[in-house]
Design goal:
Elements lengths: L3 H15 L2 H11 L4 H8 L24 H14 L4 H14 L33 H13 L10 H13 L8 H13 L4 H13 L19 H4 L13 H13 L16 H21 L4
Helix pairs in contact: 1-12, 2-3, 2-12, 3-4, 4-6, 6-7, 6-8, 8-9
């Protein structure tokens, strides 16, 4: 049986010793007396004057300038705590309008300014003139999910981006977590049509593949396991996973807590600071999974 008191105590100490302010505030919101407003206050400094987000909000992207993926991260943080700030959203709207690909819609995976700052090698970008499913799908999904600011739904950049994603989501790499998770988010929150219905069927089939969803809870390397895909019991596709497999992954998740109280990341960090930032974020994420499944 899991000693939840010890697990939480160790995680608490790790987070307060190592995590950045944003993730300490996230921890306080979910496991203490923290507020959503405090989380948003910690998120706000990562927003630039152009409305986008940068400054290593995504720890592998150290670019101080705005980038699409950190902006996606910001939308996810607001969704997580159930507070979409209207001022932040207005800035995001302006930023996305400016970086949406003219004529086709959609957002680039990264802008070339990323090359001028330290970044993980997989973020090196030579061409930022075309749209990418990642992060377009999840950005649109979060913008649809929030209902605080909706006037931009009829703006050209948004309509074109929506049309781009609907027309191309079936082309997602069905072995790539980062592509597929974008499609899942979109079909869950965007208005339904024939394209989303078809994609729902494709996604249901893709999630049966062990090449995509790693069933071994102790698999090493950069793989996405059951709980990466299904971090809560109401996630898309989780009904197809036997309860015994879920339980085995929850047990493994507990066992993989490090002696210092945090969890590790399965990819190389860019720097010690980058590693500390990722581990703080991931440690909160792992605790949220355990909480969602009633294991805490």
């Amino acid at each position: 049986m899991t000693d939840t008191r010890r697990l939480l105590s160790k995680a608490h100490d790790y987070i307060y010793s190592n995590a950045r302010l944003l993730d300490r505030r996230r921890y306080e919101f979910h496991f203490g007396n923290g507020t959503a407003e405090a989380v948003i206050d910690a998120l706000r400094p990562y927003q630039n004057r152009d409305g986008g987000f940068g400054g290593a909000l995504e720890p592998d992207i150290r670019d101080p300038l705005s980038q699409p993926v950190p902006t996606e991260f910001a939308l996810q943080v607001m969704d997580e705590v159930g507070l979409f700030d209207s001022g932040i959203l207005e800035g995001v709207r302006l930023y996305l309008k400016n970086v949406a690909i003219s004529g086709t819609g959609g957002f680039p995976r990264a802008l070339r300014s990323i090359n001028l700052a330290p970044h993980a090698p997989w973020w090196q970008t030579e061409d930022d003139t075309g749209p990418s499913l990642n992060p377009t799908g999840l950005i649109l999904a979060k913008l649809y999910k929030q209902q605080v600011v909706t006037s931009f739904y009829e703006e050209e950049w948004f309509l074109q981006s929506d049309a781009y994603f609907r027309a191309n989501m079936h082309k997602a790499d069905q072995k790539d977590y980062h592509d597929v998770i974008q499609c899942i988010a979109f079909v869950e929150h965007a208005p339904g049509d024939a394209a989303t219905e078809q994609m729902t069927g494709l996604l249901t089939d893709w999630l049966k593949s062990e090449d995509l969803v790693q069933r071994n809870p102790y698999a090493e390397g950069y793989v996405q396991k059951i709980l990466d895909w299904f971090p809560a019991p109401d996630c898309f596709g989780v009904s197809g996973i036997p309860e015994a497999i879920i339980t085995s992954h929850l047990d493994a998740l507990v066992a993989q807590q490090q002696e210092d109280g945090g969890w590790m990341i399965p990819w190389p960090a860019l720097s010690p600071a980058c590693l500390s930032e990722w581990r703080g974020m991931v440690t909160v994420n792992k605790l949220l999974i355990l909480k969602a499944y009633g294991s805490l």
